[in-house]
Amino acid sequence: MSAAGLLIIGSSQAGVQLAVSLRALGYPDPITLLGDENHRPYQRPALSKEFLQDVISKESMIFRTQEYWDDHDIRVVKNERIVRFDTRPDGSGVAYARSGETFEFDRLALAVGARARKLQVPGADLPGVLYLRNADDALELKARVPAVENVVVIGGGFIGIEAAASLTKLGKNVTLLEAGPRLIGRAVGPETSDFLLKHHLEAGIDVRLDAELTRIVGTGDQITGVEVGNEVIPADLVLVGIGVLPNTELAEHLGLDCDNGIRVDGHALCSDGVTVAVGDCANLPNPVPGSPAGDRVRFESVNNAIEQAKVAAYAITGDPEEYAGIPWFWSNQGALKLQIAGLSTGYDQTVVRAHEPTKWSVLYYRDGRIIAADAVNAPLDFMAVKGALAKGQNIPADAAADTTTMLKTLTTDI
Amino acid sequence: MPQVTYTDSEGQTRTVSANVGDSVMETAVRNGIPGIVAECGGSLSCATCHVVVDEADFAALPPMDPMEDEMLYGTAEDRTDTSRLCCQISVTDDMDLRVTTPATQV
Hints:
The structure holds 2 protein chains of 2 kinds. Chain A is of the alpha/beta class. Chain A has 9 helices and 28 strands. Helices cover 21% and strands 30% of the residues of chain A. The termini of chain A are far apart. The model of chain A has no long low-confidence stretch (mean pLDDT 96). Chain B starts with a strand and ends in a 6-residue tail after the last strand.
């Protein structure tokens, strides 16, 4: 047994999973799970949804009891931010925290996540321009919400839409600005974007596409509006959700290859062959079976954080298993539950299953073979496609539009 | 205090005390019960917290909503008559619930 063990920097989904999986695999060395927030390790997805809406408490977002960490000999450190390292050629070294604390390690795992991309317009630094990435962001937002009437949400991606739907549910007047021509353009196809747009407009969110934001308007330290073209939309609060940037500074400091994230191989190993990087910060070979050689991706998802962390745990315990799997995502947007299975990139055909006005899905095909689905309030369709993809099966397009047939019954071996 | 007993597919049993209002999934995950994955953290999106409820306990639980019912058709191990997604079962006063976890959740 080595003295210093594994130091995991980042105690969110991927870091927690890595620690848990290592213990499940019988990893014998000390594990330190270190985070820079002053909270016990917690789950993020609810921050823009159930937690923001006051449906669940902070306590129910906590990953594990202290007894669990104690019983499994995992040292959890909070509120420490690592700023530099001294390393030895074998990958061991010392991490220095901003507080002056030092953490020795035999091996390092980076689960350092991503940070919110900042808005770059005049007025963007006014108080009341908020982001939603971590618990402190959510707590500040929740603290301000009661005194607020008009909210402008900037960004029509997952976080922006989820928060807009939550704030609408809380009775706020919400305008959602998206710079592009459609909602969640990065992750779903145009048919899904249109479906979501129609619903969110009906639900009372004033969605503006192709919105050219020019500045945040305020007097003193109080926001009064958001200027879009020639119009100023009244706002007491602005919430920005325009994507994230992977945190690569520590990896760069360590001399590890980075390119839109920390580059890892199919075992979550960095370019030094020893350090592992997992979760939102990692740029990895596309894990979808059959994807083009050399294709790389970076995910911002719970599913990837968990699955990639398991792969890293196998690599660390010396029983390597290459990362392969079907990515999936979910997003609760007011009354809509969007579930995405697979990656729709490169599709050449779609089939829509229109069950009911708010129960709907679209299947994506490439060369006649199913590659992904977006399902709204249609978990059976989602589960059927996820299952078929995982088993390498197809759901032939010609019969898939018939909503009286369960997709699961249509799956065929290829 | 309410309690939940989790039996895994190999018959090993673990009983943990639970807090009223928590879900049976949260109770399992926070205490590190193997056999419950719960990727989505309880937002009824992943069907990886499938349990088979003891027949004697099943009827006393509040009925499931249609979304849970649909999700249960997509579990890794096929559902049974007393299957539930345990993120949707709230711990109540005096609960003494017995559930079995399937061999696989994913």
